[in-house]
């Protein structure tokens, strides 16, 4: 198969949802239909099995939230599908946002009873900013739900995106009968507790009296509702979807494997193949000859027996080849990747080559950081990996004087992973950890202990916000730093950060020092 065909057949996407809407269940069912796993339950039981050997996963198991982001690739029909999993918990949203920079499209899972939830809105905002095409999967139709038209209205209003149903539910809850697939005109009847997937029934014409044989009196309701759908929603416009303006909607029940096949079949056909990526210098197209990619995630200690880290590289252009000399742009050094891994479902294997859209895992001993670019061509710097102003702060102290080295190393590596941000107060030299959520502190404490044998103690630091400051005028900058010397810190890369006690103080500083730019997100 040619290089261009390899690119065209790739579908790299993320599944996102508010916690509990069914992201994990849907991911698992997609793997099942994709033939990547044999039995349902494999994803979850795999998680638990890992939890027994990896302490990090133990947290995930205990709390029932997905902390880690992982990649699962599989072949389906003529397509190579790469699913990038994201943590659902909001305290790890930075990780999710970074992962969304590596996907070409997104499936948003919504709980049909709960509708659009807080986390769904935030995630959609990121997709909108990046113009990522989204498909909506309305899940849990086997339970009593909101009215389908109202749900679609809610999605349009709250997620600010036009919708177009491509399947339509026949009733819901205990009376749920199935879905009519508008996309390929077939009927699929719902059966709870089936292991085998029943094939759909081709059903071109819903006005045929045969429909009654399958769904009885619900046939009339379905006909009416479909007529309404066709009346209200313009025909599905593929281009509008690809531009991120229109979300096709599917209904189903992930738990009962229902509506998932429809979703997957339509997904591979309509979802985009790898899209161009932005760098500081120019747009990079996947079909370019030179290889390029960037690191969107680092994961340390996946295997507690090997103290190595894995950097997740998204390939943006050209063909990746094992052992070829590439350039690591930040250090300017050559890098030869001798054992890159591909993530095929739950297995990992060494690969000799990979294509745009693929994610490879690169073993690393501490040279790579999130946001780094690697190329075989000219120097380019991939953009768009955000780092947000943290809003919770704590001093971190060593609680075991015998383990200060371990603590320093652990903190260093966890920050490289992007678990939280580290600042050093310039006035007193104390280390400050900044996060967006409480849970991150717990993860840090737990991982320091279990992965590095280090004990830490946190001391609360009531603070409003940390923001990066920038100024073209060195005199103003030094004046500001002098005045605020007790509140000045540097981040891990040595950039100036102002720690504002309150929104009032921040506002005063902004009013007084108009030449200074206060940044609330920093791109790596
Ligand atoms: P998440 O990753 O988005 O957080 O959600 P997850 O898939 O873990 O699903 C959350 C809960 O919702 C799970 O139940 C799951 O079984 C259930 N669920 C998912 N899809 C459906 C569906 O289509 N219909 C119904 N009725 N339930 C669904 P749980 O009791 O929290 O976990 P478990 O013990 O069953 O695994």
Automatic annotation (TrEMBL):
Record flagged with keyword Protein biosynthesis: yes
Name under which the protein is recorded: Peptide chain release factor 3
Domain Tr-type G: 8-275
GO biological process: regulation of translational termination
GO cellular component, one term: cytosol
Keyword flag Chaperone: no
Gene name per UniProt: prfC
CDD domains: RF3 (cd04169), RF3_III (cd16259)
A Pfam family hit: GTP_EFTU
Sites where the protein binds GTP: 17-24, 85-89, 139-142
Primary location group: cytoplasm
GO molecular function, one term: translation release factor activity, codon nonspecific
Cell compartment(s), UniProt: Cytoplasm
Organism superkingdom: Bacteria
Role of this protein: Increases the formation of ribosomal termination complexes and stimulates activities of RF-1 and RF-2. It binds guanine nucleotides and has strong preference for UGA stop codons. It may interact directly with the ribosome. The stimulation of RF-1 and RF-2 is significantly reduced by GTP and GDP, but not by GMP.
UniProt keyword list: Cytoplasm, GTP-binding, Nucleotide-binding, Protein biosynthesis
Signal peptide (UniProt feature, chain positions): none
UniProt record similarity statement: Belongs to the TRAFAC class translation factor GTPase superfamily. Classic translation factor GTPase family. PrfC subfamily.
Species lineage: Bacteria, Pseudomonadati, Bacteroidota, Bacteroidia, Marinilabiliales
